[in-house]
Amino acid sequence: MVADEWLSEVVLAFAYKSLGWEGLILVTAAAFAATLGLLARSLQRVFDPVYVLIAVVAAAGLSFPHLTATTACLGAAAFWCYGPTAWSEHAKPTALRRPGSPW
């Protein structure tokens, strides 16, 4: 049986073989930064920049205890990329809409 995270394991194994522990740290940090960047980008379509900053800082703070060099950290970017973009225009709170903007 093949694990769901097989590609992440290959990436981490290549990083470890190439650069050792520093490679794992670099790949994990890049995945975490990409996750927060994708979250901010997708939230900007819905919320004002102040609320985006609050949400991204909160997500980073809540993620720090779980941030380890595991294969699950590479899948978090896909979750944060597709999760918030699934919100529809009608689901947005009217108080958080940008004034004069259709989105």
How would you explain this protein's 3D organization?
This protein has 103 residues and is mostly helical. The chain has one domain (9-84). The chain has four helices and no strands. The protein has helices at residues 6-19, 21-44, 49-63, 72-82. Helix 1 packs across helix 2 (21-44) and helix 2 packs parallel to helix 4.
Topology readout:
Layout: H1 6-19, H2 21-44, H3 49-63, H4 72-82
Helix pairs in contact: 1-2, 2-3, 2-4
Features:
single chain; 103 residues; mainly alpha; 4 helices
Structural class: mainly alpha
- Report how far apart the termini are: 45 Å
Please describe the biggest sheet, giving its number of strands, its sense, and whether it closes into a barrel.
none
- Total helical elements: 4
Low-confidence stretches: none
- The percentage helix is 55-70%
Tell me the radius of gyration: 17 Å
Task: Give the rounded overall mean pLDDT.
Answer: 78
Gross morphology: elongated
Query: What count of structural domains?
Result: 1
Secondary structure tally: strands? 0
Question: N-to-C SSE series?
Answer: HHHH
Percent of sequence in beta strands:
under 5%
